[in-house]
Amino acid sequence: MVLLSSKATFYYKRVFPVTFFGFLLLFIGVGLFLGLRTGDYPPLPFFIGPVLMIGFTYFILKMLVFDLVDQVFDLGDALLIRNGGKEDRVALADIVNVNYSALVNPARATLTLRKPSLFGSEVTFSPPMRLIPYTRHPAMDKLIARIDAARRNST
After folding, report:
1. 50 upstream amide cis, omega within 30 of 0
2. pTM for this structure?
3. Element housing 97 (H / E)
4. What CATH number does the domain containing 60 carry?
5. What's the rounded Cα separation, in Å, for the pair 58 and 126?
6. Does residue 155 carry a pLDDT above 80?
7. Model confidence at 22, in pLDDT bands (50, 70, 90)?
8. Total number of domains in the chain
């Protein structure tokens, strides 16, 4: 079983959002607390900026991170997909398309499936991080070639 997804997915989905939003909420909370104690509240932009940052960051994370599955393993003739304590097996021949986007951080690979899996008809994961980002990923190129071979052999 070879891990095809990034080990940093846990960080992107769980650690970073809690840390980032927690810091901003703490920032707002300290301003409110000091205002309540002294009666001298910080100016309104002190609160508007962090609230806008929370909204913008949540929107970006929802589009690029929260839809990533936790883990994708290569089983040879199939992929094992795990997300939120659930797992599903998808045969390579049942994958219609692989779309790899290297120009976003984290990089994203989207598998379009012939039959919907437990996670829907599209499964998105982040491939392993590389030293030279924003270029073709060799693991994705190999996966695409193996999916093509599996589809040709299944017909």
Report:
1. no
2. 0.86
3. strand 95-101
4. 2.30.29.30
5. 18
6. no
7. very high
8. 1
